[in-house]
Amino acid sequence: MLSGENTTMAMKSVVADPSRYDWEGDTPLRYASARTIIYEMHVGGFTRHPNSRVADSKRGTFAGLVEKIPYLQDLARDVERKLDDHEVGRLLMTIEGVGPLTAACLIAELGDPARFDSPARSRATSA
């Protein structure tokens, strides 16, 4: 293990099954998971720096994060708009649980998915 690495002990994200969660009288949002973007961030890291454009008194706080909600909403709309014009992006977003941000990250990281076609598959489909 590398010095400072904590992957074996770090908390991991979990996507819960809303049908098994005790909502204590509240109800889950009625919004399709494929159209949902989940931002996972460190509040202080996202709002502490002066370039975050958060008021000095609110930097590094949840109140500072609240000021950034319009920015995050605009970002989500921009990503979704760009993917609507992207054939692979549209295809990826048809997969359950793959929303616009995940699709954009996959495209940015992997590029053209045709690179991953297997030679055996192409032989099997050519007649």
Could you characterize the architecture of this molecule?
This protein is mainly alpha-helical and 127 residues long. It is 40% helix and 0% strand. The chain has 6 helices and no strands. Helix 3 crosses helix 5. The longest helix has 16 residues. It is globular and about 55 Å long.
From the structure above, extract its key features.
127 residues, mainly alpha, 0% strand
Task: Indicate the mean pLDDT.
Answer: 78
From the alpha carbons, calculate the radius of gyration and give it in angstroms. Answer: 20 Å
Number of helices: 6
Beta fraction of the residues?
A: under 5%
Described by the principal axes of the CA atoms, the overall outline is globular
Short note summarizing the structure:
With 127 residues, this protein is mainly alpha-helical. Helix content is 40%, strand content 0%.
Q: How do the strands and helices of this protein lay out in sequence?
A:
Elements (H helix, E strand, L loop, with lengths): L42 H5 L14 H6 L1 H16 L2 H6 L7 H11 L8 H7 L2
